[in-house]
Design goal:
Length: 444
């Protein structure tokens, strides 16, 4: 144990079917998992383990698994949930972006993000890579809720709700990137929106900024046919991936969507060790297309899962993303054997951790990693019986089955109640903004 000042274990999970998502995908039946004083997993094995934890979670045979990682989302967009439906991405953006400028300030983004964190934690999502305006609000929600939220300054040509002109936005990003990072590196990101909303000069400046501060890049890429056309028109016939490669933004980047990729794009992504975040619910809803997940897999690309924003998703439900990802690929390939359950479970956990470069800390249940875990409900009819837990996770689990959630060794959801966010206050704050949100959209 690393903390000599206390040998008090924090939590003991007993009688669990532990889905570790380790290298070999091992499952430990009738297992115990002990969270030590430092919030890390001190011991994990079948049978009983000696411990001195006061908090004992008897899983009663239920699945215990790593917390889900939502690798592409726009948390504060809960404010606009359901206001951009039954239309194309391009129409959606032209409807919502001006509305966001009118409505968003720190308090509004905080309210929207807090609601999203509540929805996420209750649904088993313990970590999110967020892309939204006024990211200080998301960092504050992360601190108060204990949810892991990674975020950073967004970049579009327009001023946005901050409001900051492009050059002022750059200075702000420098301040952001120079501020001390916590141990999860959560200030070390920049988020250029896309290659269709930014010119080549802008993109090159951002690449220089990322390089100087060793910041990670989170960007939308190759989402729709419409986007491909816009990018080709704007960037001399190139694809979004080519533009990102040419402007030095592709290396180790996190690419949201990656639906419309050429073979050359896939090679570029693989060679640059970038991650593709598959967002199947958003892709289906916006009729964006079917991502080439199997080809990306064959090329060795890390593939994570995202919900996208709650106005394009529309909920923040990663269990649905797991299920849709599998079903979409099986149907497209006309082969039910492709993308088996364990692959899908990895996409929602360890692959997300890898995208965030946090796989040494989270994403699987192994000794020494921080304890980010979910305990499912042993009495759920739809999870009974569970013979192969990976299959159960990929095809049966819903958010209603999430009973307890632990982040960083701290119990944040107990018996389906969030202990770190005032549930009613979070709902009330977003409802209170409703009239203003609706007026901003209708007046466009
Ligand atoms: Zn998005």
């Amino acid at each position: 144990m690393s903390n000599n000042s206390s040998n008090q274990d924090r939590i003991a999970v007993i009688n669990a079917q532990i889905v570790t998502v380790d290298e070999s995908g091992s499952v430990i039946d009738n297992g115990s998992l002990i969270v030590g004083a430092n919030g890390a997993i001190r011991a994990i094995s079948s049978g009983e383990i000696n411990h001195n934890a006061n908090e004992i979670i008897d899983a009663r045979g239920a699945i215990v698994m790593p917390g889900l990682i939502n690798t592409h989302t726009h948390l504060g967009m809960t404010l606009f949930r359901g206001l951009g439906d039954d239309m194309s991405l391009e129409d959606f953006l032209s409807r919502l972006m001006p509305a966001e400028v009118k409505v968003l300030n720190y308090n509004a983004v905080h309210a929207g993000t807090q609601l999203a964190a509540l929805e996420s934690l209750l649904g088993g999502i313990t970590t999110a890579l967020d892309m939204y305006y006024l990211p200080d609000a998301a960092l504050d929600v992360a601190k108060s809720s204990s949810m892991r939220i990674q975020t950073g300054p967004n970049f579009l040509e327009s001023d946005g709700p901050e409001p900051l002109a492009y050059n002022d936005r750059l200075s702000w990003a420098v301040k952001w990137l120079e501020s001390p990072r916590d141990q999860t590196g959560s200030t070390g990101w920049i988020a250029p929106h896309s290659t269709y909303l930014l010119g080549e000069d802008h993109l090159r400046t951002l690449a220089a900024l990322a390089s100087k501060y060793e910041a990670r890049v989170h960007v939308h890429a190759a989402e729709t046919v419409g986007e491909m056309q816009l990018v080709a028109n704007r960037h001399g016939g190139r694809t979004p991936i080519q533009v990102l490669a040419d402007t030095n933004l592709l290396h180790r980047s996190v690419l949201a969507h990656g639906v419309h990729l050429s073979d050359a794009d896939i090679s570029l992504i693989a060679n640059n060790s970038a991650t593709v975040v598959h967002c199947p619910a958003s892709n289906f809803k916006l009729a964006s297309g079917i991502a080439r997940i199997l080809d990306l897999q064959r090329a060795g690309v890390n593939i994570a899962l995202g919900t996208d924003g709650p106005a394009s998703g529309n909920d923040i439900d990663l269990w649905i993303a797991i299920r849709l990802a599998g079903y979409m690929q099986k149907t497209a390939a006309k082969n039910p054997a492709v993308l088996p359950a364990l692959d899908l479970v990895r996409m929602a956990t360890i692959n997300g951790a890898r995208a965030l470069q946090l796989d040494h800390m989270i994403g699987s249940l192994e000794v020494g990693k921080q304890a980010d875990l979910i305990v499912l409900d042993a009495d759920s009819p739809s999870l009974t019986p569970t013979f192969d837990p990976h299959t159960t996770i990929a095809t049966c689990v819903t958010r209603a089955d999430v009973l307890h959630v632990v982040v960083d060794g701290k119990l944040v959801v107990k018996d389906r109640k969030c202990l770190t966010i005032n549930h009613q206050a979070a709902i009330t704050a977003v409802k209170a903004l409703g009239k203003q949100v609706l007026a901003s959209v209708n007046n466009n």
